[in-house]
Design goal:
CATH class of the largest domain: Alpha Beta
Number of strands: 18
Strand content: 15-25%
Largest sheet: 6 strands, mixed
Number of helices: 8
Order of helices and strands: EEEEEEEEHHHEHHEEEEEEHHEEEH
Shape: globular
Structural class: alpha+beta
Distance between the termini: 61 Å
Strand order of the largest sheet: 9-18-17-16-12-15
CATH architecture of the largest domain: 2-Layer Sandwich
CATH topology of the largest domain: Chloramphenicol Acetyltransferase
Number of domains: 3
Protein backbone atom coordinates (compact mmCIF):
# COMPACT_ATOMS: atom_id res chain seq x y z
CA UNK A 1 0.00 0.00 0.00
CA UNK A 2 1.16 3.62 -0.49
CA UNK A 3 3.63 4.87 2.12
CA UNK A 4 3.23 8.42 3.40
CA UNK A 5 6.39 10.46 3.95
CA UNK A 6 5.83 13.01 6.71
CA UNK A 7 7.96 15.97 7.73
CA UNK A 8 9.90 14.96 10.87
CA UNK A 9 11.09 17.30 13.61
CA UNK A 10 14.66 17.81 12.45
CA UNK A 11 15.63 19.89 15.47
CA UNK A 12 14.39 20.58 18.98
CA UNK A 13 11.33 22.85 18.99
CA UNK A 14 10.86 22.70 15.22
CA UNK A 15 7.23 23.22 14.23
CA UNK A 16 7.46 23.73 10.47
CA UNK A 17 9.94 24.09 7.63
CA UNK A 18 10.18 24.99 3.95
CA UNK A 19 10.68 22.29 1.36
CA UNK A 20 13.58 24.04 -0.34
CA UNK A 21 14.13 21.54 -3.16
CA UNK A 22 12.94 18.10 -4.17
CA UNK A 23 15.81 15.81 -5.14
CA UNK A 24 13.37 13.30 -6.65
CA UNK A 25 10.47 13.93 -9.02
CA UNK A 26 7.16 12.12 -9.26
CA UNK A 27 7.81 8.79 -10.94
CA UNK A 28 11.42 8.51 -9.71
CA UNK A 29 12.57 5.51 -7.70
CA UNK A 30 14.04 6.11 -4.26
CA UNK A 31 15.85 3.75 -1.91
CA UNK A 32 15.40 3.74 1.85
CA UNK A 33 17.86 6.21 3.36
CA UNK A 34 18.39 8.02 0.05
CA UNK A 35 18.10 11.80 0.05
CA UNK A 36 14.60 12.77 -1.02
CA UNK A 37 14.45 16.53 -0.47
CA UNK A 38 16.25 19.51 1.02
CA UNK A 39 14.40 21.05 3.95
CA UNK A 40 15.04 24.59 5.18
CA UNK A 41 14.50 25.11 8.91
CA UNK A 42 15.08 28.31 10.88
CA UNK A 43 18.73 27.30 11.34
CA UNK A 44 19.96 25.35 8.35
CA UNK A 45 19.09 23.47 5.17
CA UNK A 46 19.20 19.71 5.67
CA UNK A 47 18.65 16.68 3.51
CA UNK A 48 15.56 14.62 4.26
CA UNK A 49 16.07 10.90 3.76
CA UNK A 50 13.37 8.54 2.56
CA UNK A 51 12.09 6.34 5.36
CA UNK A 52 11.11 3.62 2.89
CA UNK A 53 11.86 2.46 -0.64
CA UNK A 54 9.51 2.91 -3.57
CA UNK A 55 8.47 5.11 -6.46
CA UNK A 56 7.49 8.72 -5.81
CA UNK A 57 3.78 8.70 -6.55
CA UNK A 58 2.90 12.15 -5.24
CA UNK A 59 4.68 15.27 -4.05
CA UNK A 60 2.14 16.86 -1.72
CA UNK A 61 4.13 19.98 -0.83
CA UNK A 62 5.80 21.74 -3.79
CA UNK A 63 9.32 23.15 -3.56
CA UNK A 64 9.31 26.54 -1.86
CA UNK A 65 6.20 25.80 0.19
CA UNK A 66 6.03 25.44 3.95
CA UNK A 67 4.88 22.32 5.78
CA UNK A 68 4.27 21.61 9.44
CA UNK A 69 5.89 18.79 11.37
CA UNK A 70 4.05 15.47 10.77
CA UNK A 71 2.35 16.77 7.63
CA UNK A 72 2.40 14.40 4.65
CA UNK A 73 4.82 15.86 2.11
CA UNK A 74 5.09 12.93 -0.31
CA UNK A 75 3.73 9.45 -0.96
CA UNK A 76 5.74 6.44 -2.15
CA UNK A 77 4.24 3.61 -4.17
CA UNK A 78 5.29 -0.01 -4.27
CA UNK A 79 5.62 -2.02 -7.47
CA UNK A 80 2.27 -2.42 -9.18
CA UNK A 81 0.62 0.49 -7.37
CA UNK A 82 -0.44 3.68 -9.10
CA UNK A 83 -1.25 7.23 -8.08
CA UNK A 84 -5.00 6.53 -8.20
CA UNK A 85 -4.62 4.59 -4.96
CA UNK A 86 -3.36 7.65 -3.09
CA UNK A 87 -5.98 9.23 -0.85
CA UNK A 88 -5.10 12.48 0.90
CA UNK A 89 -7.49 14.96 2.54
CA UNK A 90 -8.68 17.61 0.13
CA UNK A 91 -6.81 20.90 0.34
CA UNK A 92 -8.95 23.88 1.39
CA UNK A 93 -10.41 26.08 -1.29
CA UNK A 94 -8.42 29.17 -2.13
CA UNK A 95 -9.08 32.03 0.25
CA UNK A 96 -7.70 35.51 0.87
CA UNK A 97 -5.69 34.16 3.82
CA UNK A 98 -3.78 31.97 1.36
CA UNK A 99 -3.06 34.81 -1.06
CA UNK A 100 0.25 36.51 -0.23
CA UNK A 101 -0.47 39.56 -2.34
CA UNK A 102 -0.92 42.65 -0.13
CA UNK A 103 -3.59 44.07 -2.46
CA UNK A 104 -6.04 41.30 -1.59
CA UNK A 105 -7.74 41.65 1.78
CA UNK A 106 -10.53 39.81 3.53
CA UNK A 107 -13.78 41.46 2.41
CA UNK A 108 -16.81 40.38 4.35
CA UNK A 109 -19.14 41.69 1.62
CA UNK A 110 -17.58 39.60 -1.16
CA UNK A 111 -16.58 36.44 0.70
CA UNK A 112 -18.86 33.83 2.19
CA UNK A 113 -18.43 33.81 5.96
CA UNK A 114 -16.53 30.82 7.30
CA UNK A 115 -18.54 28.58 9.59
CA UNK A 116 -18.01 29.41 13.21
CA UNK A 117 -15.83 26.89 15.00
CA UNK A 118 -14.75 26.35 18.55
CA UNK A 119 -11.16 27.63 18.92
CA UNK A 120 -10.15 24.39 20.65
CA UNK A 121 -11.24 22.38 17.59
CA UNK A 122 -9.36 24.48 15.07
CA UNK A 123 -6.44 22.76 13.34
CA UNK A 124 -3.49 25.04 14.11
CA UNK A 125 0.18 24.71 14.94
CA UNK A 126 1.22 25.30 18.58
CA UNK A 127 3.16 28.40 17.49
CA UNK A 128 0.11 29.80 15.71
CA UNK A 129 -2.00 29.28 18.85
CA UNK A 130 0.57 31.02 21.02
CA UNK A 131 0.92 34.01 18.68
CA UNK A 132 -2.88 34.23 18.30
CA UNK A 133 -3.27 34.43 22.07
CA UNK A 134 -0.63 37.16 22.26
CA UNK A 135 -2.14 39.23 19.44
CA UNK A 136 -5.79 38.66 20.27
CA UNK A 137 -6.62 36.85 17.03
CA UNK A 138 -9.64 34.53 16.92
CA UNK A 139 -8.43 31.28 15.36
CA UNK A 140 -11.99 30.14 14.69
CA UNK A 141 -12.40 32.99 12.20
CA UNK A 142 -9.35 32.05 10.13
CA UNK A 143 -8.83 29.76 7.16
CA UNK A 144 -5.46 28.07 7.30
CA UNK A 145 -2.93 28.24 4.47
CA UNK A 146 -0.92 25.26 5.72
CA UNK A 147 -1.25 21.76 4.34
CA UNK A 148 -4.81 20.40 4.67
CA UNK A 149 -6.06 23.74 5.99
CA UNK A 150 -3.88 23.92 9.09
CA UNK A 151 -3.53 27.41 10.51
CA UNK A 152 0.12 28.46 10.72
CA UNK A 153 1.80 31.55 12.08
CA UNK A 154 1.68 33.53 8.83
CA UNK A 155 -2.14 33.24 8.88
CA UNK A 156 -2.21 34.70 12.37
CA UNK A 157 0.23 37.48 11.46
CA UNK A 158 -1.88 38.47 8.43
CA UNK A 159 -5.05 38.49 10.52
CA UNK A 160 -3.34 40.64 13.16
CA UNK A 161 -2.19 43.06 10.46
CA UNK A 162 -5.76 43.32 9.13
CA UNK A 163 -7.05 43.98 12.65
CA UNK A 164 -4.47 46.72 13.15
CA UNK A 165 -5.29 48.34 9.81
CA UNK A 166 -9.09 48.17 10.20
CA UNK A 167 -10.76 51.37 11.49
CA UNK A 168 -11.99 51.12 15.04
CA UNK A 169 -15.78 51.26 15.62
CA UNK A 170 -17.08 54.71 16.52
CA UNK A 171 -18.08 53.63 20.02
CA UNK A 172 -14.71 52.04 20.80
CA UNK A 173 -12.66 53.90 23.36
CA UNK A 174 -9.23 55.05 22.12
CA UNK A 175 -7.51 53.06 24.86
CA UNK A 176 -8.77 49.78 23.39
CA UNK A 177 -8.24 50.62 19.71
CA UNK A 178 -5.62 48.61 17.80
CA UNK A 179 -2.19 50.21 17.56
CA UNK A 180 -1.87 52.22 14.32
CA UNK A 181 0.51 51.04 11.61
CA UNK A 182 3.91 52.81 11.63
CA UNK A 183 3.88 56.17 9.87
CA UNK A 184 6.02 55.73 6.74
CA UNK A 185 5.72 59.37 5.64
CA UNK A 186 9.04 60.94 4.68
CA UNK A 187 10.98 57.68 4.41
CA UNK A 188 11.46 57.86 0.68
CA UNK A 189 11.92 54.77 -1.48
CA UNK A 190 12.65 51.50 0.29
CA UNK A 191 12.66 47.75 -0.31
CA UNK A 192 10.55 45.53 1.95
CA UNK A 193 12.50 42.32 2.69
CA UNK A 194 10.22 39.59 4.09
CA UNK A 195 11.38 37.99 7.32
CA UNK A 196 13.02 34.61 6.90
CA UNK A 197 12.41 31.83 9.41
CA UNK A 198 15.91 32.40 10.79
CA UNK A 199 15.38 36.16 11.17
CA UNK A 200 12.07 35.65 12.98
CA UNK A 201 13.71 33.15 15.33
CA UNK A 202 16.62 35.50 16.03
CA UNK A 203 14.24 38.36 16.76
CA UNK A 204 12.08 36.27 19.07
CA UNK A 205 14.97 34.77 21.03
CA UNK A 206 16.91 38.01 21.47
CA UNK A 207 13.79 39.94 22.50
CA UNK A 208 13.07 37.22 25.04
CA UNK A 209 16.66 37.37 26.30
CA UNK A 210 16.91 41.14 26.59
CA UNK A 211 13.51 41.52 28.30
CA UNK A 212 13.56 38.51 30.64
CA UNK A 213 17.23 37.85 31.47
CA UNK A 214 18.87 40.19 34.04
CA UNK A 215 22.13 41.00 32.25
CA UNK A 216 25.20 42.48 33.90
CA UNK A 217 28.49 43.22 32.18
CA UNK A 218 32.18 42.86 33.04
CA UNK A 219 34.96 44.35 30.94
CA UNK A 220 38.68 43.65 30.65
CA UNK A 221 41.63 44.64 28.47
CA UNK A 222 43.96 41.81 27.48
CA UNK A 223 47.52 42.35 26.26
CA UNK A 224 48.10 39.92 23.42
CA UNK A 225 51.69 40.57 22.27
CA UNK A 226 52.78 37.14 23.54
CA UNK A 227 49.78 35.52 21.82
CA UNK A 228 50.58 37.21 18.49
CA UNK A 229 54.24 36.15 18.74
CA UNK A 230 53.28 32.55 19.49
CA UNK A 231 50.75 32.53 16.66
CA UNK A 232 53.41 33.78 14.24
CA UNK A 233 55.76 30.95 15.29
CA UNK A 234 53.04 28.30 14.93
CA UNK A 235 51.96 29.57 11.50
CA UNK A 236 55.48 29.88 10.10
CA UNK A 237 55.65 27.62 7.04
CA UNK A 238 52.10 26.43 7.60
CA UNK A 239 49.65 26.07 4.71
CA UNK A 240 47.45 29.23 4.56
CA UNK A 241 44.29 27.13 4.89
CA UNK A 242 45.62 25.62 8.14
CA UNK A 243 46.84 28.78 9.83
CA UNK A 244 45.79 29.36 13.42
CA UNK A 245 43.71 32.50 13.97
CA UNK A 246 43.47 34.77 16.98
CA UNK A 247 39.88 33.56 17.34
CA UNK A 248 41.14 29.97 17.71
CA UNK A 249 43.29 31.09 20.65
CA UNK A 250 40.28 32.90 22.11
CA UNK A 251 38.11 29.76 21.88
CA UNK A 252 40.80 27.76 23.68
CA UNK A 253 41.13 30.48 26.33
CA UNK A 254 37.35 30.44 26.89
CA UNK A 255 37.46 26.66 27.33
CA UNK A 256 40.47 26.90 29.63
CA UNK A 257 38.71 29.46 31.85
CA UNK A 258 35.51 27.37 31.99
CA UNK A 259 37.54 24.35 33.12
CA UNK A 260 39.03 26.46 35.92
CA UNK A 261 35.75 28.20 36.86
CA UNK A 262 33.01 25.61 36.10
CA UNK A 263 30.43 27.68 38.01
CA UNK A 264 30.22 29.92 34.92
CA UNK A 265 29.28 26.93 32.75
CA UNK A 266 25.67 27.01 33.92
CA UNK A 267 22.08 27.25 32.76
CA UNK A 268 19.20 28.76 34.73
CA UNK A 269 15.87 26.90 35.01
CA UNK A 270 12.93 27.60 37.29
CA UNK A 271 13.70 24.49 39.33
CA UNK A 272 17.49 24.40 39.44
CA UNK A 273 20.76 25.76 38.11
CA UNK A 274 22.20 23.22 35.68
CA UNK A 275 25.98 22.96 36.14
CA UNK A 276 27.24 21.56 32.83
CA UNK A 277 29.89 18.85 32.88
CA UNK A 278 31.04 19.31 29.27
CA UNK A 279 32.75 22.47 28.00
CA UNK A 280 30.77 23.12 24.80
CA UNK A 281 31.28 26.55 23.25
CA UNK A 282 28.86 28.19 20.81
CA UNK A 283 30.76 30.45 18.39
CA UNK A 284 28.80 33.10 16.51
CA UNK A 285 29.11 32.93 12.71
CA UNK A 286 27.56 35.55 10.42
CA UNK A 287 25.64 34.16 7.45
CA UNK A 288 23.54 35.77 4.72
CA UNK A 289 20.40 34.78 6.62
CA UNK A 290 21.55 35.90 10.06
CA UNK A 291 23.66 34.78 12.99
CA UNK A 292 24.10 31.11 13.86
CA UNK A 293 26.23 29.54 16.58
CA UNK A 294 27.85 26.20 15.74
CA UNK A 295 29.21 24.39 18.78
CA UNK A 296 32.76 23.27 19.53
CA UNK A 297 32.13 20.38 21.93
CA UNK A 298 34.54 19.43 24.73
CA UNK A 299 36.77 22.30 23.63
CA UNK A 300 38.89 22.01 26.77
CA UNK A 301 40.06 18.53 25.73
CA UNK A 302 41.01 19.44 22.15
CA UNK A 303 44.30 20.80 20.88
CA UNK A 304 44.54 24.29 19.43
CA UNK A 305 44.97 22.76 15.96
CA UNK A 306 41.90 20.53 16.38
CA UNK A 307 39.80 23.50 17.50
CA UNK A 308 41.01 25.52 14.51
CA UNK A 309 40.20 22.79 11.98
CA UNK A 310 36.77 22.12 13.48
CA UNK A 311 35.89 25.81 13.61
CA UNK A 312 36.83 26.32 9.95
CA UNK A 313 34.68 23.36 8.91
CA UNK A 314 31.70 24.47 10.98
CA UNK A 315 31.95 28.06 9.71
CA UNK A 316 31.84 26.89 6.08
CA UNK A 317 28.90 24.57 6.77
CA UNK A 318 27.09 27.38 8.62
CA UNK A 319 27.47 29.84 5.73
CA UNK A 320 26.30 27.18 3.29
CA UNK A 321 23.27 26.42 5.48
CA UNK A 322 24.41 22.82 5.88
CA UNK A 323 24.78 22.47 9.65
CA UNK A 324 23.20 19.42 11.23
CA UNK A 325 21.08 19.97 14.36
CA UNK A 326 23.69 18.47 16.68
CA UNK A 327 26.25 20.92 15.26
CA UNK A 328 24.38 24.02 16.45
CA UNK A 329 22.13 22.84 19.30
CA UNK A 330 23.29 22.90 22.88
CA UNK A 331 26.38 24.69 24.08
CA UNK A 332 26.88 26.15 27.52
CA UNK A 333 28.74 29.39 26.71
CA UNK A 334 28.78 31.70 23.66
CA UNK A 335 31.54 33.67 21.99
CA UNK A 336 31.03 36.58 19.59
CA UNK A 337 34.08 38.14 17.94
CA UNK A 338 33.74 41.36 15.93
CA UNK A 339 37.45 42.17 15.99
CA UNK A 340 37.78 41.47 12.26
CA UNK A 341 35.38 44.40 11.67
CA UNK A 342 37.64 46.74 13.65
CA UNK A 343 35.07 47.07 16.45
CA UNK A 344 36.86 48.17 19.61
CA UNK A 345 34.33 46.79 22.10
CA UNK A 346 30.66 45.88 22.40
CA UNK A 347 28.17 44.15 24.69
CA UNK A 348 26.50 41.00 23.38
CA UNK A 349 23.03 39.70 24.23
CA UNK A 350 22.99 36.37 26.09
CA UNK A 351 21.93 33.36 24.02
CA UNK A 352 19.23 31.60 26.12
CA UNK A 353 19.29 29.30 27.95
CA UNK A 354 23.02 29.94 28.42
CA UNK A 355 24.20 32.26 31.18
CA UNK A 356 27.25 33.93 29.59
CA UNK A 357 28.49 35.32 26.29
CA UNK A 358 31.89 36.89 25.67
CA UNK A 359 32.11 39.80 23.20
CA UNK A 360 35.58 40.25 21.70
CA UNK A 361 36.78 43.45 20.06
CA UNK A 362 39.70 44.28 17.80
CA UNK A 363 43.29 44.35 19.02
CA UNK A 364 45.03 47.72 18.70
CA UNK A 365 48.27 49.32 19.80
CA UNK A 366 47.54 51.24 22.98
CA UNK A 367 49.61 52.78 25.77
CA UNK A 368 49.86 50.59 28.87
CA UNK A 369 51.66 50.99 32.16
CA UNK A 370 54.71 48.79 32.87
CA UNK A 371 56.02 49.75 36.27
CA UNK A 372 56.96 53.41 36.02
CA UNK A 373 56.93 53.40 32.24
CA UNK A 374 54.26 53.85 29.58
CA UNK A 375 54.76 51.55 26.60
CA UNK A 376 52.75 50.53 23.55
CA UNK A 377 51.20 47.07 23.49
CA UNK A 378 48.60 45.19 21.46
CA UNK A 379 45.45 45.30 23.58
CA UNK A 380 42.17 43.45 22.99
CA UNK A 381 39.04 44.58 24.83
CA UNK A 382 36.47 41.97 25.88
CA UNK A 383 33.06 42.26 27.56
CA UNK A 384 31.39 39.40 29.43
CA UNK A 385 27.57 39.49 29.52
CA UNK A 386 26.21 37.45 32.41
CA UNK A 387 22.79 36.19 33.56
CA UNK A 388 22.75 37.26 37.21
CA UNK A 389 20.21 34.57 38.10
CA UNK A 390 22.71 31.77 37.49
CA UNK A 391 26.13 33.43 37.78
CA UNK A 392 27.05 35.93 40.48
CA UNK A 393 29.38 38.87 40.00
CA UNK A 394 32.27 37.23 41.84
CA UNK A 395 32.02 34.10 39.67
CA UNK A 396 31.91 36.19 36.50
CA UNK A 397 34.93 38.17 37.66
CA UNK A 398 36.85 34.98 38.48
CA UNK A 399 36.09 33.57 35.05
CA UNK A 400 37.14 36.77 33.28
CA UNK A 401 40.40 36.84 35.24
CA UNK A 402 41.12 33.23 34.24
CA UNK A 403 40.42 34.09 30.60
CA UNK A 404 42.69 37.15 30.71
CA UNK A 405 45.51 35.12 32.28
CA UNK A 406 45.23 32.46 29.56
CA UNK A 407 45.26 35.02 26.73
CA UNK A 408 48.23 36.86 28.17
CA UNK A 409 50.17 33.62 28.84
CA UNK A 410 49.15 31.62 25.72
CA UNK A 411 51.66 28.81 26.25
CA UNK A 412 49.22 27.49 28.89
CA UNK A 413 46.78 26.76 26.05
CA UNK A 414 49.20 24.36 24.39
CA UNK A 415 49.54 21.98 27.33
Amino acid sequence: MPKEITLPALSAGMEDAIIARWLKAEGDMVAQGEALAEVETDKATMELEATAAGRVGLIAVPAGERANVNDVIAVLLEEGEDAAQIALPDAPAASPAMDPSPERALDGASQAPAPKRDGADVIASPLARRVAAQKGVDLAALTGSGPHGRIVRIDVDRAADRQAAAPAPADTAPASAPAPAPDMAGLGAYEAIPHSSMRRTIARRLLESKTTVPHFYLEADCEIDALLDLRAQINEGRDPADKISVNDFVIKAVAHALALVPEANAIWTDDAILRLKSVDISVAVATDGGLITPVIRQADTKSLGAVSREMKTLAVRARDGRLLPDEYQGGGFSLSNLGMFDVKSFSAIINPPQSCILAVGAAARRPVGRGDQIVLANVMSVTLSVDHRAVDGAVGAAWLAAFKDAVEAPMTLLV
